[in-house]
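Hi W., the PMV complex you wanted:
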Amino acid sequence: MTEAQFIPKPYTKTVESGKVTWESPSNIALVKYWGKKKDQIPENPSISFTLSHCKTITTVSFSKKETNNAFSFEVFLDGENKDDFKPKIETFFKRIEVYLPFLKDYHFNIETTNTFPHSSGIASSASGMSALALCLMSIEKQLNDAVTEAYCNKKASFLARLGSGSACRSIEGDLVVWGKHGNIEGSSDLFGIKYPYTIHENFKNYQDTILLVDKGEKQVSSSVGHNLMYYHPFAEERFKQAHNNLSKLMTILESGDLNAFIALIESEALTLHAMMMTSMPYFILMKPNTLEIINKIWDFRKKSGWHIGFTLDAGANVHVLYPEKESNQILEFINNELVAYIENAHYIVDKIGLGAKQLTIDN
Ligand code: PMV
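Structure:
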């Protein structure tokens, strides 16, 4: 599939106004995306668990305007007008206008809220951009009856990618692949697809407890980090490694080998941060407590034999991953030994989710 296939034929219907609401989850990568070409085309394929509780709920109300020479929209977060979000959305609209030619025909009110606190260090760009892309696709569906659900999902993922790369993995569940991989049929650099092969019982309902080590603003944004992969001395090897790790993970997902799973995802997380530390300029997003937690996890795993592992995103927070059947023991360990290292003892118990959901449709 190429970009051109997402440019719609002239719309068959007219709609004056309406309102659509979607909720869309966050996701956590197991094999990481770090490094991109133009327009969020990834340098390597990645795969993620879709989350269940960490999500954004977005309502878009739209009404036809007299002129169609400029974008017109307002953004609200938790009911408050957010003018500082506007430049990012304006850029997003410019990038996707060719694929959604109705964007200048309407005024949009975009009301959004997150189930996780804004200052939690959990990025809302994946859930936020995917929720907005899905709302826009619901509007396109009203303008063209022929649009199928499968096409809506694919195009929503394609559009979300243009807003924020990893957002394209937040449309469906429970595991999503984004980026062309030779052994994964249907995989594409343009959008995420539901992982199409067998997943062992061990990974059903896999748990992700997010330990909020540092709720502050990141010192280095993801886009700056991605760009630093351009002249990175280890970039080519890293991109090859991601391809290989995804191949290995496919075998692990089928066999249910939890020890191999943990080794792979922890190596991916530390490699991501190693890329940051070996960029020029270099930077460190982990905090002392991130390392304390990692060491505690390793210690506990060795002593107890429970299948507890971790991954990290581009920040200091730790995602503790474990199979559902070991939840009691691992939550007890988190409560007894890890809460001391997290801000205000704040953590979020989440798990694998099934993807975005439309909440209301009201023409
Ligand atoms: O989608 P972005 O540009 O915020 O990049 C996300 C990068 C990581 O979260 C570090 C890895 C990933 O694959 O999600």
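The mean pLDDT is 95.

W.
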